[in-house]
């Protein structure tokens, strides 16, 4: 098979991180105590370089506006959007991992390699319209994440959380595969466009609905929508903070994008099957917002709170599908960009304050805001954005989605959405309260003076960058939405069928 | 620079305080005195610039928006949002009130905040930006942004520098006010997606075309957000907590300016956009206002904490504002405009002085005082003047507003107008009862000789700085009392125009099929608008 330059070009951004992921474990074989530090730095450098190359490659592609293809791999605008999204999230996770793993005392090369493989899987997952390729991407992104969740083996709940994630994830993947098989059997093709055309001609076969439902389950599991959300808090609590952040952002993001390709882009939301899927999505979105927000309220652990918060954000994202207009999908993509910044900052903040392992209770945050005010202000921006207070980016994310929801006549869901985000304000404010409004207890203050000052330059930097993105989302929507998200849709896929 | 300034005056006024505040936020804690000094210079500068530039508007007021700035901001994915600021007769004096109170508050609470004073002053400046932006914004989403963003600095002011229950009070303030505005956002989106824009004029025209039941629902969503802010009975329960726990500066700005945004929202947006629904709900609103007037006064009467007493008096006074708006007459609405200003000044001053007392005595309980007059004669003089203005003695600012409101309600032509005006007059009386009772207990009577009492901790009368804060306030109290026309003349035409579009039963404002923003014929204006001022001045003489 001869590869043209164009094929290589489409493949390159995936190949580079994959190659780095293969090389890094070899470097980590070196166990010599004298060279451990340089080797460690080299591994991180290699991983970061690979991701950076991929990132710049994507931005170059974006600037030229070319749509590249390599058989089933579609590097169209939406694929490029996914690439930029995933590489940025992975780079931030990588920078935070450096600090986190040093604090926790668990530096292993495999971690980086697995992270890179997972990133490649994510790009593949959302850059194809072939169900089999999608499944390959799904597995390539999931399997490393199962391992990463359980990566800090000396913590018992780490292993427990990883196991839970693995078992439930395996079920979800098999559902996805079963759905793909059913659709293939009924329509004779694995290509989403072909399936869509076949559905229109075939009409409402109940088995098609079953296939579509199974496929949907696979996606909903990955974006942790109710009732497929049970793994989320345990898995997030188990994993190192940067990995939890990466999972919450990138997995959810690519699952949403792939779902856009599969449902509105492929099967269509206006066919007989699609309309039922739409009703199901509306019900699930409502349930996700209610369950996610109410469960987040009583949490005492910041990470579990953030896990439930990420569930509730899945609900807002699903609302975009319910509205189902091109503007709504643009809003969803905009939301994803802001959501990336918000959650990477929220999890990164824990690393930046040096709260690793079990020290992730709200009490552990007390009074920390005043100690490092710049970081504190960045966290406040993040929390306000998560709760949707203007002029932060998070408000505009919700605004774009709710606006379309109201315009398409789903006023009830919009009211539910704003009520849910009102509830969410309370638990996000608890972080702000702990950081700025409370004083550390005497024991904590004594401990703080005894312990060496926490140096976490890299994770602090990522949090600040995230805060800058959030503010940019609040003040320069024009660039982000018009220049980025809507282009991804307009020139990427024909979203409405 | 000067050219840019003259073209973008409003942008400068809105954003300069916030930018200045953010710069001051960067100061390390050791430099707090310098940061505080810079903050107050910044706030004073904003006041002088706003006074010098905005008061050039002729007192009778132009018809249209002046100093307007209007550029499309973002129109992504459909609905355009405009960057639109302007000043007209409805908001000029509220803007001036904001820029006037902010530096005075800073000066008045100079020594009250000891911890992280620089950050505190920075937050006051950021808050000023939010308030100015909300008063000037002419695009509803833009207004909404300021409306919400304003909560954040206030939240931190209460939460970090507040009293013992500050966490509870701050969270309650934030969630309570947010709860109303989120439903309002949905209503806003509904109307905006129908109209295709957030411009109030076009949205109003669209709203008129909707079925009446939908108009009413939308109006209620708007009214809920505004009524919480005012606060209208029974949505006032956040106010006492927030006021008692807030630091002095927070209380002054909360009572002085923030509450006005609620009534301003009614006047600027709810009334012109839903005139029919407003008319439909005028009676319930007026009834709640009367309840607020009486209830606030009665509850204030039994308070033991001076600050809480002033907080409940706010509920009562803001009830008058809402009653004036609900009367749907030019007189009543003009009275509401004036009452907003005079409440901002009188109650702001009361909170400032309670703060001065607290700084010295570290208590606010009425029972802890007695005989303060002999210890602090200058303070007592100022306090008494402000008290009289608060209870609405003729010649002071409080009288004119309340009189116009009661007058407007009485002649409104609504079947309930006379009865409600009569009951509300009782509120004026009750106001005198609780204020004078408190003043008597605190300032007169035998000196409290108990060693732990507040009176025994009062070692000094007002300093020059504190007198410098009080003098402009007292001057303003008398100016507004003696010549109220200089404050309400400018809002006559806009108010008359607003009401003409509605179908209020006021006999002097008979309905004419007219577009909202069309200039009115001269004779009509003269008959409708000359009444309030004439009546007001007649009585004064």
- Helix and strand run of chain A: HHEEHHHHHHHHHHHHHHHHHH
Structural class of chain B: mainly alpha
Strand order in space, largest sheet of chain B: 1-2
Main beta sheet of chain A, described? 2 strands, antiparallel
Question: Which characteristics define this entry?
Answer:
heterodimer, A: 497 residues, mainly alpha, 2 strands, 1% strand, B: 541 residues, 72% helix, 3% strand, disordered C terminus
Task: Write a structural description.
The complex is a heterodimer of chains A (497) and B (541). In chain A, a hairpin with a 2-residue loop joins strand 1 (68-70) and strand 2. Chain A has helices spanning 5-27, 36-64, 77-104, 109-126, 131-149, 156-187, 192-202, 206-222, 231-238, 241-267, 272-296, 302-323, 326-352, 368-371, 373-386, 393-407, 411-437, 442-450, 457-475, 477-490; strands at residues 68-70, 73-75. The relative contact order of chain A is 0.10. Chain A is built from 20 helices and 2 strands. Chain A has one domain. Chain A is mainly alpha-helical and 497 residues long. Chain B has a domain at 281-503. In chain B, helix 2 (9-25) packs antiparallel against helix 5, helix 8 runs antiparallel to helix 10 (212-229) and helix 15 packs antiparallel against helix 16. Chain B has helices at 2-7, 9-25, 32-54, 92-108, 117-136, 140-149, 151-161, 166-195, 200-209, 212-229, 238-245, 248-273, 275-280, 282-301, 306-327, 330-361, 372-375, 377-391, 397-410, 417-443, 464-482, 485-501, 522-540, and strands spanning 66-74, 81-87. In chain B, a hairpin with a 6-residue loop joins strand 1 (66-74) and strand 2 (81-87). The relative contact order of chain B is 0.10. Chain B has a two-stranded antiparallel ribbon. Chain B is mainly alpha-helical. At the A-B interface, helix 13, helix 16, helix 17 and helix 20 of A face helix 6, helix 7 and helix 8 of B.
